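Tokens in:
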């Protein structure tokens, strides 16, 4: 692991001192001359699309080709976005969880085909005994949220929340459908603890941050809170309008309602609600994804190629029961059959509420991370996101 840390962290540190001006937009960081199109696209987000503060990183064939940031981390535009600014990336957190489980598989501690009930017998209640690890991570378990009224305290309760969810009857026969969920994080964390011993929060702190130097955390340590960007809503983002509620599975997703201001509260930042409360910067998300790719015969990898092949194997491709749109799920990642991550279906990653995303594309050999604070209500169709992804393949 030390050689991985050295390779990626040194690249970032040495090459982050340039300053670039694009019309009235000042960007900081590094962009290789061959990849100027990336800088231009990032600047366009500020000039034309209302970007306030953001970071954008692209790694190609194991080399850092762009690590850019600019703008402001606060709504008042007084505090500049800096190299060490982090922001809540919402559901990008699910990709981080996918990486953590891939590491467990790589270490031989668990397999994607194992039944969850093998490690957690109580989870078998109400017909869930055949749910596999892959099915759980691919949102196929039939548990999309609490089926009785719940509070934020319930959502952040950890083990009591997991036990309550494990006892529930699924909203559909597990494995037959898939439905987007945030409580997948609660269930997956409970499983992870039973297999590995540590929570995913602690595992990320030990294995991704301490060993690899990646600025990714589940929640936000108190000492890092001054580094966090304010999330800015141009208009109130109402999650109850994002998902039109016509079924109990959809109703469970917003029980309780999670809103944007919640991410700035001590309760959210101290919790282990890891399907939605990772904080990170673009450089670290891109580096994490790059470590899942083949960087060459001598390049470092986080897990073996066969494990990534199994992790990113398509588990479900169809209309999501909650989002009511086509989703292509693998074990913790969205695969790219819908085209959100460029032209190659082999790409995999995850987006987050408001616009953040990260992905790895093994065909193009690229890994991309983007973190921002101006929240969009356009989800996958966010023009800033589309612009940055398109720029990668325009080169």
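Residues out:
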């Amino acid at each position: 692991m030390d050689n991985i840390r050295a390779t990626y962290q040194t690249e970032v540190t040495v090459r982050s001192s340039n300053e670039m001006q694009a019309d009235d937009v000042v960007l900081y960081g590094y962009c290789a001359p061959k990849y100027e199109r990336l800088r231009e696209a990032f600047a366009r987000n500020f000039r034309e699309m209302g970007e306030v503060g953001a970071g954008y990183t692209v790694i190609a064939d194991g080399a850092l080709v762009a690590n850019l940031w600019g703008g402001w981390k606060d709504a008042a535009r007084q505090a500049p976005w800096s190299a060490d600014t982090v922001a809540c990336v919402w559901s990008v957190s699910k990709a981080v969880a996918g990486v953590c489980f891939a590491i467990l598989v790589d270490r031989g501690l668990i397999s994607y085909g194992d039944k969850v009930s093998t490690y957690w017998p109580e989870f078998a209640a109400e017909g869930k005994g055949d749910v596999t690890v892959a099915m759980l991570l691919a949102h196929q378990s039939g548990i999309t949220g609490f089926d009785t009224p719940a509070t934020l305290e319930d959502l952040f309760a950890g083990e009591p929340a997991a036990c309550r969810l494990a006892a529930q009857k699924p909203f559909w026969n597990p494995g037959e459908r898939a439905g987007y969920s945030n409580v997948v994080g609660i269930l997956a964390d409970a499983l992870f603890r039973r297999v590995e011993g540590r929570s995913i929060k602690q595992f990320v702190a030990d294995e991704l941050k301490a060993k690899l130097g990646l600025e990714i955390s589940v929640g936000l340590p108190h000492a890092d809170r001054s580094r966090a960007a304010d999330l800015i809503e141009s208009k109130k983002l109402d999650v109850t309008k994002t998902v039109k509620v016509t079924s109990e599975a959809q109703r469970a997703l917003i029980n309780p309602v999670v809103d944007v201001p919640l991410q700035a509260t001590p309760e959210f930042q101290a919790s282990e609600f890891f399907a939605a409360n990772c904080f990170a910067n673009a450089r670290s998300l891109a580096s994490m994804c790059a470590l899942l790719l083949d960087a060459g015969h001598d390049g470092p990898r986080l897990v073996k190629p066969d494990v990534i092949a199994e992790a990113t194997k398509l588990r479900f491709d169809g209309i999501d029961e909650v989002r009511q749109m086509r989703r292509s799920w693998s074990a913790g990642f969205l695969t790219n059959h819908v085209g959100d991550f460029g032209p190659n279906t082999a790409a995999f990653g995850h987006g987050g509420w408001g616009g953040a995303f990260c992905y790895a594309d093994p065909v193009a050999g690229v890994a991309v991370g983007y973190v921002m604070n101006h929240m969009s209500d356009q989800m996958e169709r966010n023009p800033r996101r589309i612009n940055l992804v398109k720029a990668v393949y325009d080169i």
